[in-house]
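Help wanted!
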Amino acid sequence: MENTSMNGNMEEEEFEGIEERDPERNPMNEPLLKRNRTLSSNPLALVGAKVSYIESLDYEINENDLFKQDWRSRSRCQVLQYIFLKWLLAFLVGLLTGIIATLINLAVENISGYKLLAVVEYIQQERYLIGFLYFTSTNFILTFIASILCVCFAPTAAGPGIPEIKAYLNGVDTPNMYGANTLFVKIIGSIGAVSAGLDLGKEGPLVHIGSCIASLLGQGGPDNHKIKWKWLRYFNNDRDRRDLITCGASSGVCAAFRAPVGGVLFALEEVASWWRSALLWRTFCSTAVVVVVLRAFIELCHEGKCGLFGEGGLIMFDVSNVAVSYNVMDIIPVAIIGILGGVLGSLYNYLLHKILRVYNLINQKGKIYKLLLSLSVSIFTSACQYGLPFLVKCTPCESSSLQEQSSSCPTNGKSGNYKQFNCPNGHYNDLATLLLTTNDDAVRNIFSTNTPHEYQPYSILIFFTLYCILGLITFGIAVPSGLFLPIILIGSGYGRLLGIIMKPYTNIDHGLLAVLGAASLMAGSMRMTVSLCVIFLELTNNLLLLPITMIVLLVAKTVGDSFNPSIYEIILHLKGLPFMDADPELWMRNLSVGELIDVKPSVISFRGVEKVANIVEALKNTTHNGFPVMDDDVEFEIVKLHGVILRAHLIKVLKKKWFLKEKRRTEEWEVREKFSWVELAEREGNIEDVGVTKDEMEMFVDLHPLTNTTPFTVLESMSVAKAKILFRHVGLRHMLVVPKYQVTGVCPVIGILTRQDLLAYNILSVFPHLAKSKGREKRN
Amino acid sequence: MENTSMNGNMEEEEFEGIEERDPERNPMNEPLLKRNRTLSSNPLALVGAKVSYIESLDYEINENDLFKQDWRSRSRCQVLQYIFLKWLLAFLVGLLTGIIATLINLAVENISGYKLLAVVEYIQQERYLIGFLYFTSTNFILTFIASILCVCFAPTAAGPGIPEIKAYLNGVDTPNMYGANTLFVKIIGSIGAVSAGLDLGKEGPLVHIGSCIASLLGQGGPDNHKIKWKWLRYFNNDRDRRDLITCGASSGVCAAFRAPVGGVLFALEEVASWWRSALLWRTFCSTAVVVVVLRAFIELCHEGKCGLFGEGGLIMFDVSNVAVSYNVMDIIPVAIIGILGGVLGSLYNYLLHKILRVYNLINQKGKIYKLLLSLSVSIFTSACQYGLPFLVKCTPCESSSLQEQSSSCPTNGKSGNYKQFNCPNGHYNDLATLLLTTNDDAVRNIFSTNTPHEYQPYSILIFFTLYCILGLITFGIAVPSGLFLPIILIGSGYGRLLGIIMKPYTNIDHGLLAVLGAASLMAGSMRMTVSLCVIFLELTNNLLLLPITMIVLLVAKTVGDSFNPSIYEIILHLKGLPFMDADPELWMRNLSVGELIDVKPSVISFRGVEKVANIVEALKNTTHNGFPVMDDDVEFEIVKLHGVILRAHLIKVLKKKWFLKEKRRTEEWEVREKFSWVELAEREGNIEDVGVTKDEMEMFVDLHPLTNTTPFTVLESMSVAKAKILFRHVGLRHMLVVPKYQVTGVCPVIGILTRQDLLAYNILSVFPHLAKSKGREKRN
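Answered by r_m:
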């Protein structure tokens, strides 16, 4: 977001005179949903393609009497159960993700394989129009299935899901994101969309699928049919769910790229907001299981038992057969690829941002428009993929120079290089090799090494241009879609193109340059480094490529960062998800939390033993999720802070009607009789559903046992920068602000800060002058 | 530490009756230095081999008026200078570490190469005694040089240095650890010790060397001859130094294993306590530079220009030539290796712990004893390495079955398999192949693939036993020594041995089993996972090995963790370095910070404008490093907390004699006239060096502008567990405890907590009953 706010500010400097102007009012920078410009923002965001009410998650440890009692009473055996189950779940997440990923692969390879075989048949018979109609209509139907499911049954399944998972792991609840519906639609939709030959990958969806599996396992099944296994109750809290979903996300990446270490690193570098050694260790376990499952299936399918699936081993795009020999001078072409990758990547981000805004306008018009959009993209894609290869000339197979390849030229089967298409025997159509195939095979073909003369520059140029267009227009449609593969396709295209141009200056193989091009574009758009490096290492199985890959990534990321934020940050901002960066902006040092509190509505607090009417009124009139609880000491006239109570727990009290006739403190057994900590962990219920009679309104509730007695606090003089560090690093939901002086009888809490209050975007809307202060750079 | 405290507790349960018994009084669990059993512990620890006074580092942002003024006044150009320099330093750290690592390799390979060539010469002439004397005396002299340097000039250079770096990055200052002396001694000592054939590696020392280079670059040179380059002043703070040292540590690992991604991950998983994306990114840059430097040197030395150095490429122990084919049933031998690795690893930790205690007793007797210890280990090592190969029978070269190897058998040059030693022509001595060579070559030979019949079980058994003994007795001597290589040697020995035993049951190559054995023992002793996995991947260049490596690591770590903590944690505890774990113990939830404060001496605070005499008295009578500063509002009789002032800044005030005749607040320009923020960043000076006259004692100081106005606070009701999370995650030095009620005129700070107060070990010494409470397991 750093750059976003800087852009906003740069524009503002042009309008220096207009003092009242909002710093981010350039429409292109605004989230898609309008917010009111106060510190308590409208908590709505786009989750998938659905507008949802979002709230924060409780990653903080809630130390109320009931939970404390539970921890104390857990026997050694129960602790072991918990630990065992934690590992079992990590294992199961890996297992199921591996199996589902293989099934998706199987389905995609078979559906699109048989489709392509039929098309090749038509072409060989020179029945070009029938071939076209067959190709287009199959793709149309597949897209229709994927799209109708997404539009009607699970809007949250549209898109990659990674931004939402990122937000969830940052502490934002994204409702309906991990349900059984979503999982089902994501699996079927992903199979449909990928088999339809659309320019999208199954990588992002697999990450989402992994997370769904993890969440469903953790809660014991779909929302309506949960298994009530008593061991599972230990996982009924946001912290453990977060850990499980991290495992799921890394398993997903691992399954997508068959890259176990890369999967762990991707989850930790890009998706998760908090890293812990213990978690590193558990995600690692999940990905190990995924790899074992994948390997087992590959072996099982090796003898053609799985239809057209089964080519290729654990390494997806193997380039290990090429001898990597490069010298110091090769750093120049490598740096050029990096720079171009950075420029193109940020350009891609910029354009995708604009197109997503336009698409959003279309999608808002209704379900039918969403569907039409997907289907027109599908028809356009099919037409291009089928029609463009007719534009290029056939190339004769080089039987003399490259003996091994020539023997297998042309291959008309599903996978393999050198497609004959419309060419006479002994010739091949190089563009058909790249277009009329699955996306995975297209990548494999363009990465193919030791084939410097296979592709004509003209074909590669067409390929590159086509996938630039498709990559931009396909991402926003209402089907499960990943970003990785489109970017790899564009990147490999320009990498190979550069290879042809720079041929006189470098000896690096064109296949390797395609790999480097793909890496550079990914770094330029997604801005990952270490995880990307490891993923590429594991994808291509060539360790000697590592140093140049690292340089390419470094250069591309640096160049990209100087233009705009990463694509995920752009999408998060666009969707209005309140994602919290790790580092505060520098201007936040010049603002104290006291000043923030001043522009907020005053805090509503309860007494330790409170009247029911007051509670109901507070819950109905506000949307606050946490309320401070105070204790009066009548004798000494002092007010003591007891803690913070959550809205969910108050609603539970009202629902259970745990009311007292007189104003008194309860005993421990009274609470435990009424509430179990298991119930307290459930987060459901709405104040509208609670019916309290007039008599009950006059009764009392003892809030003490349900109050979190150890909330985190900051002094009112604390700078917002440091408060944000506390909030983000410890993973808070509510932060109390206490006065820095001591006056008898004054309330010891002067305000509560939440995630929304600490977002740069929201603060700047109230204090626009701050963005102007000097030194906006973050001190990394 | 979890397990340490549990052990302590288990013993206690046996003595249930003795209530007052200290929970950790079993002498084997105590740090080497005695502490007084109060919450303010004696801040002494072993740094290297030197007892040092340790204090905490200021990783928290100090927001006093002067620093704030500096941030605000930094121009855009200065911010760019800072960012540019940050990257330049990361680049230079990589460059210099790469160059020095290459020089060390060059020196080691040449010294030990020529030494071994001469020995082989003597043996071929059958002058065995002369050969022995030559071998032993050369090793003796080399050890003597390494040891005398460590003992006399830089005791901090002894050992691996990794525990101290770990503590530093956790927030503990380790004095004299990163000086020019230490760097020099570490380089020369490491060359000497490794060339002397001692059973130690250059990996740990290289990590320390990288960190020294980073620290020296950051401060502009050695302590006495700093370059006063004005750009460097931005780096004169603990936060930036920490980041630089992280870069240095990862460069060191990268240089040691030629593993760039592994280096980054090792630094982040094992060494650093805080991870940030930005840092990940910068360490990655450093390691990329290291790899480029290493590669350039390897190419330069390829034609024998560097003496005996130059064999081998970027991959140290290449096993990529072996076809990895394993099936599901191979999981059993793999699991056995993992389990054995875990058991042996924790046994190794246990025994090393005991031996280090014994060595400490010897070392405490004086320098001459340290020296004698090193020299006797050297003589023992030489005698074994030279003598043991005579015990085994010569093996004839298998010219029939393995044609490629046989053609080069025997190799008597420095490196290579199949040494002739004392055998007739056409025969080789397999134990000499492993012992009479450099450690790196020994690893390469035992990892050698497709050679199932090269080693006799008897030879491997001798090798394994010898290195078990050497690995235990060598680590604690006063030379720079790394732990990685000894563990790899032991592990590869038993891996190969298992390969011979399990031959009927598995097809996995013996060389690969040796690799897996080494990995399992490292996981069993050091308990790393992802970083170890990547390091092994990069060491051996065989990606298909990854799934089984992961399983081995997982099993070994799990088994090891059930016995004792990792070797680094044991060493940290032994040295008395107050390392703070990421996760609090569960019993800490049952204690509030208020209770901790009660057992501490009451806090000493200053008024905003304070009398000089009071300050001098407080500084002289306490060792506190932070004092709360209060403001009285006489009119309303309220006390306001202004912030916390550091001892270093108070001493600066006294030294500069910035005294006021009357009690008044100063203007901003008055402070800035006297102090610059650059001076304030220096951390030097002692209260003993300050001379204040009697008249001056009656004068006043305005502490406001030097006070950090935004200290982190917790309420007294906060649980210690959550306070520790705050302390550790945000990286604090002082945490103020504030009351939870409001009473006019009462001091708004009731205590200060520091690192020592929050260590489990220290708390348990005051509240021994807590360790008994149930549920001691951490909730990971």
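OP: Thanks! One thing I noticed: Chain A touches chain B through 99 residues (CB under 8 Å).
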